[in-house]
Amino acid sequence: MRATKIVTCFIINEDKILILKRSNKVKSMKGLWAGVSGIIEKDELPLARAKREIFEEVGLYEDQIKLLKSEKEMSIVSPQYKNHEWLVFPFLFSTKNSTIKLNWENSDYRWISVDEIKNFETVPSLDKVLFNLL
Predict the structure, then answer these.
(1) Rounded CA gap, 99 and 102, in Å?
(2) Full domain range(s) for residue 80
(3) Going by DSSP bridges, is the β-strand pair 84-95/36-39 parallel, antiparallel, or unpaired?
(4) What CATH number does the domain containing 86 carry?
(5) Which tens digits make up the pLDDT trace of 52-110?
(6) 127: part of which helix (H) or strand (E)?
(7) DSSP for residue 13
């Protein structure tokens, strides 16, 4: 089975969690809601990738976020990708800045309460990744 290492980051502001709607321009999971995410390249450290993705996808600088928690990688299998697993490195950050500047990878964003995640069509097991961090 092929595996792809990715980071998935949740950002909390007050009592709300940021989720992003993946645009039609990305390669996978188009139109689904997700956390800030990205593929870990070669020997890159997951935390370094997480901070880079947060800046690229939502415009928050490293000094505007604070790492609250990280968890060990989780294996996620999605039905649309045969013989493939995603090794997800989950992170939870906080920010005092709720102003988001999306790049091309996402078409929309929402600040939601944790229990609202069930109302969105998300990437596979997004709720499990989130609840593992809370």
Answers:
(1) 10
(2) 2-133
(3) unpaired
(4) 3.90.79.10
(5) 999 999 999 999 999 999 999 999 887 666 777 889 999 999 999 999 999 999 999 99
(6) helix 126-133
(7) E
Find all residues with CB under 8 Å of 34, minimum gap 6, and list them: 8, 19, 20, 21, 22, 122, 123, 126
| Burial label, 113 (beta-carbon count in 10 A; 0-12, 13-18, 19+) | exposed
Query: Which residues, other chains included, contact 49 with Cβ-Cβ below 8 Å and sequence gap of 6+?
Result: 7, 38, 39, 40, 41, 89
Question: Residue 74 to residues 22, 85, 125: CA-CA distances in angstroms?
Answer: 21, 10, 10
Put residue 42 in one of left, alpha, beta given phi > 0 → left and psi -120 to 50 → alpha.
left
* pTM as predicted: 0.93
Q: Which residue has tokens 């968890």?
A: 71
Name the domain count of the chain.
1
DSSP codes joined into one string, 32-73: -EE-EEEEPPTT--HHHHHHHHHHHHH---GGGEEEEEE---
Please name which of 104, 127, 133, 134 lies closest in space to residue 19, comparing C-alpha atoms. Answer: 127
